[in-house]
Queue: 2 jobs
Job 1
Amino acid sequence: MLVNLRSMLQKADREHYAVGGYNMTTLESAMAIIEAGEEEKSPVILQVSEKTIDYMGLDLAFAVAKTLADRAVVPVCIHFDHGRNFPMVEDSLKIGFSSVMLDVSKMPKDERIEFVKEFVSKAHHLGATVEAEEDQIGGREDYVDGNRGHFTDPKRAAQFVRETNVDAFAVSIGSTHGKPLPHEKLDLELLAEINKAVDVPLVLHGASSTDEKVVREAISLGICKINIDTDLRLAFTRELRRTLKDADIYDPREELAPSRDEIRDEVIKHIRLFGSSDKA
Ligand code: G3H
Ligand code: 13P
Ligand code: ZN
């Protein structure tokens, strides 16, 4: 069943768990994410990035996600991840995405609030929700890159959220996209300050390979949505390399199914860590 972020994250906030935002890169990963949610009776956020849209087209990416969401017996949010191509984000809302992320970290500071506020009002009118990122989240992952120096300022974040009316806010507290960088460390004291200042659910990006204890602490400090992409790609690729060693396998379905199952198991692991099992 297709939902937006609002009810999903409000419940997570009240009951102190987080819902995973899992990136779909192919049909197989989309199937695996939904299968994991159903097995665990967990809500899931199926995320589509600009790179995935370039790979399979907005219409096909949405058709896959929507078919899976409609079939699912758990709540599924179809979310545009890291929207920097704003006309493309608008198109995704028109086609039926239930949620979008606006990444305004590359936009001049004095234009951000007006732009996001107007966008949020359009999205709400269509029944969709908006997550926003103001300060760059570190690391690099294909289309998404950022500088580690820009951590979230709690006061500025509070003003941004109040004035734009966004539904969720992505924090920059030291996590990085992609494979973990040396010395990557989350600033949990800063997270506690942001949590006091900002009254919408908080989002943690770049959470692959983050220490489990740190993830649990971050959830206790207001993180309600946690984005995972790299861990899923690594699981897929590891298994595919193993499968391809068998020269007798030359059917793409037999090559891809074990990798799809590995993504499902990886998502299940995260669902359990985030505490969203049985929360559907
Ligand atoms: O946060 C970044 C996402 O993992 C998207 O990655 O642009 O390679 O699809 P991508
Ligand atoms: P990782 O790939 O580092 O898990 O980050 C995912 C993400 O933040 C998607 O927006
Ligand atoms: Zn991200």
Job 2
Amino acid sequence: MPSSPATRPVGVFDSGVGGLSVLQALRHELPHEHFVYLADSGNAPYGERGDAFVQRRTLAIADFLHRQHGIKALVVACNTATAAAVEPLRAAMPQLPTIGVEPALKPAARGSQTHHVGVLGTRGTVTSTRFERLRREHEDGTRFSVQACDGLAHAIEQSTEEPLPAAASTTKIGALCARYTGALGTFGLKTGEIDTLVLGCTHYVFAKEALRALVGPDVQIVDTGAAVARQTRRILAQAGALAPESDAGDTPVAPGRVALYTTGQLAALQAAAQRWLGLPAQCCAALPPGGTPI
Ligand code: DGL
């Protein structure tokens, strides 16, 4: 494990493979950082589990990444865990800079021409006090139609698992997306229609194609990966913990390394990392075995 503060890894975690959408944005924004990603797929989905469970998992994972990997900051790449647990986490580990993700209501409200924004999220996220507060902050002049998408994150997780045939899981994801976008209302650019769709769950980024086919080409689909990556850069810079881009002799340093761990099926994480991030299977490992159970 690299030990100087700036070269220590940034931890990233999600209930499963959804947070890989945030990791992708982080690697793009911060190519010199080392990342340790933990997919808690053995316990996914979080969205229908309740706050107490999500808080317990979040604190255990943060502690594990801190103790075992010496992370210098933690990105909670999960809207559900951010809503349920980011405050207890900051209270429990005040020394660890923590970056959460939340549905991008602010940019969506700013960009909407029809002033009608659709939001898809997990039940845990959209029924949270944190989401209600966020919604109240931005609903002046904007109507938010909000839909809890039970089962969608789970279907996206399953699409990476064996032996479910890919075609069957694509059909299942498509059917759930159709049900939930249909429940939101009519999409389009005419007065009263929804012209902006917020993906309030990091898994849903991987269903973007299905969603795009349903809402049409003119609707803005907004996710939070790039904004979270810029915020992570700011937090690391403030802490003086950005990884160096060149060495003392001004020679550019190599790109950062990525290590991925899962509490679920190793093959599923490998498939997701390869399919969505182009990462080789050797970057991935399963937990425990031999490690501390978390
Ligand atoms: N990816 C997660 C989120 O952003 C959670 C999905 C789930 O486990 O329900 O909310």
